[in-house]
Each structure stands twice: as structure tokens, then as C-alpha cells.
């Protein structure tokens, strides 16, 4: 790869929403020059390999599991926390691999998820107004003028934190930690808990399958290691643009800040900078689609972002809400199907299901999350299209942010173990439960 600033900057004049107001433009240029000199976090060959894996998922031959924090923080980029998140994703992946009888593409919402879109530039508490928290890549969460000041040098820290996070992920998934047999042992801890008795029979089936493999002497390398990809929202163009490099082998630009990047509902306007940026990089890309998405929007995004209809190039991440998915999703998947296009469709059952509890917490009900996942499968089966994966906000830790699940987390428990600076995440056990429920419904199909 060439570490040069790419021609993508020529398009820097297009309107870009959700960008921080930086106090000093000259400092931003310095940071960008520094970022442009850093080694890429991912390699073009890996990105191309992921595109092939996602093509399989779009064709119904693999299933994508994408998950991680709503917002990563510098403070939480510790060995323990990263390990717990990877562990949770791997545990879910084993169950889903069995349920789907297909390879699961494992992808973290990790090593780059440091910037957040906000509804306002400012936040007011009492008499005091300060810049809104836009993620650790921009400013700090503490409500003081020093912490909330937007600081472009934080983007360099985001790069370094992403690099150390990704390094640990690579070590875990290549060095023996991700061995299928140990991941399965961890799952026994979950299914042997009396609260999860309902999942015991599925866990036993998986156990038998693994013992069968062992009895046959199956001891190949593929049981010991696993591919693991990283992804984040491509929000901060002052970060993503300098991380974009021309691959010396092919001459194509790759955003080397992550294997896959996506854009959200708030930045997916066709004529604006984010869509333009995504249209120019070779990475697999995602776009979030909410309940107000029109058929025309979806079609125009395909024309702009995937004009060649390249398998694995484009993922639509739908976030409709449990109460709306059965009404709003069919027309989109049918219209896209009828235009002969086959993007990868995955469900984000988190963002359409937010509630505020009586005691003032942003939360989500586990049952609503599951209901949206079920609706997603129903809609795709009815349309003859492919439900290719799930996108989940989760943590590997024992927090209490979402309501319900077999541990029956209630509103008062939120007061004890709520840690998220952003949206509420499924905790370790809720995440596994979701994987078991999805696997159950997959084995029935
Ligand atoms: N390599 C296979 C895969 O990635 C099997 C495997 C090894 C696996 N470790 C894993 C599957 C952990 C799920 C989770 O699918
Ligand atoms: Mn979120």
C-alpha cells in the first residue's frame, strides 16, 4: 500500500453532516497528515476476502454476525474487556454455525467505533451548555469544558487504540484462544445455568456434534483458528479520508481503518459527502435503513454505491423496530429483488427498539429485539430473499442495560449495572440467549 493522501480529498467540498466543529483548522490538518503517515490497520487482501465472505452470505451460503459496543471508549480498550467481547461473539458464532449449518462470518463493531452522530451540536445541563459528546475520537464524556472541547488529536488516539485492539483480536483468533472446543466449553457454562434450561437440548446437540468430530479424529487447523473482521461507522471524514490508501497491487483506494465500514440513517443522503466517500472505496460497505426509507431511496443507494452489482459489496442493515418491520420491510426487499439486485440484508434489531424507562434509563426490551429478528426472517422468507445476518450492540460484560432475558433484568437492576455512555447493549448472557433463539429458528427452516 502507498501511504499517500488519496484523491478522495477532491470531494471534500460536498456537504458532510455530523462533523464536529473543530476549534482550530490548522491543527486538524496536522492530525490528518499524521494519520496519513500511519500504517494501515487492515490489508487490502483481507478486505477482498471479506467481500467474498459477504457475497456468500448474500447468496444464503453463510451468515454474518456483526456485534460490539454502541460506542467504544479509550478507557474500555483493556485486555479483559476486549477479550470478553471477542469471547461473546465467538460463543454466539458457534451456536449460529450449528443452527444455520453454515459458516458464520464473525465481525466486531470494534477497533474503530469511536465517533457518534448526535441530534444537536450542544448539550445543556441546567445553566451550562457544552459541545455534545461525539465519541472518544472527538471529545470526552465528562460534562466539563475541558473534557467536552473537541480535540482533533483524539483521532490519533482513536487510531492507536484501534491498532492495539485489533492486535489483540488477531492474537486471540489466531493463537488458540478461539479454538472451537474451548469456545464450546464456555457455552456449557451458559446452558448449565438453570435459568437457561430451555437451551439445554440444543447445547447437548452441539456437544454431541463436537464429540463426534473429536471421535473421528478431526483435529485440523480450521478448528483452532477463525477469521475475524472489524467494522465501524464511517462518520468522521477527517479520520476516514487520511486512512484511505491506494493499494499498490491494484491501484484501488481502500479505507484501511477497518475491513467494513457503514453509514447511518443520518448521513446517507445521496448528494452528500458520506455516500460519495463510500462510493469511492473498495471496502464492503453498509447502509442503515430505517422505517421511513422509501423504495426510491433504496434503489438510488444501490445505483450509487454498487453500480456493478458486485456480490458482497453492499450490505443493507435494516433497523425498523419490532412494531414496524413486518409492514415496512417487505416493500423494500421486494423492490430490490425485482430490480435484480442482491445486496446482503442483515437486521439491526437494536436501534428501532429504544425506550426510556420510568426511572430514566435508555433501554431496550430483549423481547422486542427478538421480535424484530423474527419479523426479519418472516419477511425475507415470504419474499424469497435471504436473511443474511444480524447486527447487535453487545458487550461481553455482566452489565444491566437491556430489559428481560432469562436473567429477567428489570428496571431497578439498571440502577446497579448500567455502564454504556451511549445506547444500551445486550450483556453477555442476553447475547448468548439471542444466538440460541436465532439458532433454534434456523434449525426449523
Ligand atoms: N474455523 C471455523 C470457523 O471459523 C471453526 C471455528 C474455530 C469456530 N473456532 C471457532 C467457529 C469459534 C465459531 C467460533 O467457523
Ligand atoms: Mn447505537
What does this structure look like?
The protein has helices spanning 25-37, 44-58, 79-100, 145-148, 154-174, 180-191, 200-215, 221-224, 237-240, 273-280, 295-305, 325-338, 366-383, 411-417, 428-443; strands at residues 63-68, 104-108, 122-125, 128-131, 229-233, 244-246, 253-255, 260-263, 285-289, 314-318, 344-347, 354-356, 362-364, 387-393. Strand 12 (354-356) and strand 13 (362-364) form a beta hairpin. It has one domain (2-442): Alpha-Beta Barrel (TIM Barrel), CATH 3.20.20. It has 15 helices and 14 strands. By secondary structure, the chain is α/β, with parallel strands linked by helices. The radius of gyration is 21 Å and the shape is globular. The strands form four sheets. It has an eight-stranded parallel barrel, surrounded by five helices. It binds tryptophan (TRP) and manganese (II) ion. Manganese (II) ion binds next to loops.
Amino acid at each position: 500500500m502507498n501511504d499517500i493522501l488519496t484523491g478522495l480529498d477532491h470531494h471534500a467540498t460536498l456537504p458532510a453532516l455530523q462533523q464536529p466543529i473543530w476549534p482550530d483548522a490548522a491543527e486538524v490538518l496536522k492530525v490528518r497528515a499524521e494519520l496519513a503517515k500511519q500504517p494501515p490497520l487492515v490489508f487490502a487482501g483481507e478486505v477482498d476476502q471479506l467481500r467474498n465472505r459477504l457475497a456468500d452470505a448474500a447468496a444464503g451460503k453463510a451468515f454474518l454476525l456483526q456485534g460490539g459496543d454502541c460506542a467504544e471508549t479509550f478507557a474500555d480498550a483493556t485486555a479483559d474487556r476486549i477479550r470478553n467481547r471477542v469471547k461473546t461473539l465467538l460463543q454466539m458464532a458457534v451456536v449460529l454455525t450449528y443452527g444455520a449449518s453454515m459458516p458464520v462470518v464473525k465481525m466486531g463493531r470494534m477497533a474503530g467505533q469511536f465517533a457518534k452522530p448526535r441530534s444537536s451540536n450542544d448539550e445543556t445541563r441546567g445553566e451550562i451548555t457544552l459541545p455534545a459528546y461525539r465519541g472518544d475520537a472527538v471529545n470526552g464524556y465528562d460534562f466539563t469544558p475541558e473534557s467536552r472541547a473537541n480535540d482533533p488529536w483524539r483521532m490519533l488516539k482513536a487510531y492507536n487504540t484501534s491498532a492495539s485492539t485489533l492486535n489483540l483480536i488477531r492474537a486471540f483468533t489466531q493463537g488458540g484462544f478461539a479454538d472451537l472446543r474451548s469456545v464450546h466449553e464456555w457455552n456449557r457454562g451458559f446452558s448449565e445455568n438453570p435459568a437457561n434450561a430451555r437451551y439445554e437440548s440444543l447445547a447437548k446437540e452441539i456437544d454431541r456434534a463436537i464429540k463426534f468430530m473429536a471421535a473421528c479424529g478431526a483435529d485440523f487447523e480450521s478448528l483452532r483458528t477463525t477469521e475475524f473482521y472489524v467494522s465501524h461507522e464511517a462518520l468522521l471524514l477527517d479520520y476516514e479520508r487520511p486512512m484511505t490508501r491506494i493499494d499498490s497491487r491494484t491501484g484501488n483506494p481502500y479505507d484501511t481503518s477497518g475491513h467494513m465500514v457503514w453509514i447511518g440513517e443520518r448521513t446517507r443522503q445521496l448528494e452528500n459527502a458520506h455516500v460519495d466517500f463510500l462510493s469511492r472505496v473498495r471496502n464492503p460497505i453498509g447502509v442503515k435503513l430505517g422505517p421511513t426509507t422509501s423504495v426510491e431511496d433504496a434503489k438510488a443507494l444501490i445505483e450509487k454505491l454498487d453500480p456493478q452489482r458486485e456480490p458482497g459489496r453492499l450490505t443493507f442493515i435494516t433497523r425498523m423496530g419490532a412494531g414496524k418491520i413486518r409492514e415496512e420491510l417487505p416493500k423494500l426487499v421486494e423492490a430490490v429483488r425485482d430490480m435484480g439486485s442482491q445486496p446482503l440484508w442483515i437486521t439491526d434489531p437494536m436501534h428501532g427498539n429504544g425506550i426510556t424507562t420510568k426511572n430514566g434509563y435508555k433501554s431496550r426490551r430483549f423481547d422486542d429485539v427478538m421480535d424484530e429478528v423474527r419479523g426479519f426472517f418472516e419477511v425475507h422468507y415470504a419474499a424469497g430473499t435471504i436473511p443474511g445476518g444480524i447486527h447487535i450492540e453487545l458487550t461481553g460484560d455482566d452489565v444491566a442495560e437491556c430489559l428481560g432475558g432469562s436473567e429477567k433484568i428489570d428496571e431497578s437492576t439498571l440502577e446497579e449495572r448500567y455502564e454504556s455512555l451511549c445506547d444500551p447493549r445486550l450483556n453477555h448472557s442476553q447475547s448468548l440467549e439471542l444466538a440460541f433463539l436465532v439458532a433454534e429458528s434456523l434449525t426449523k427452516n
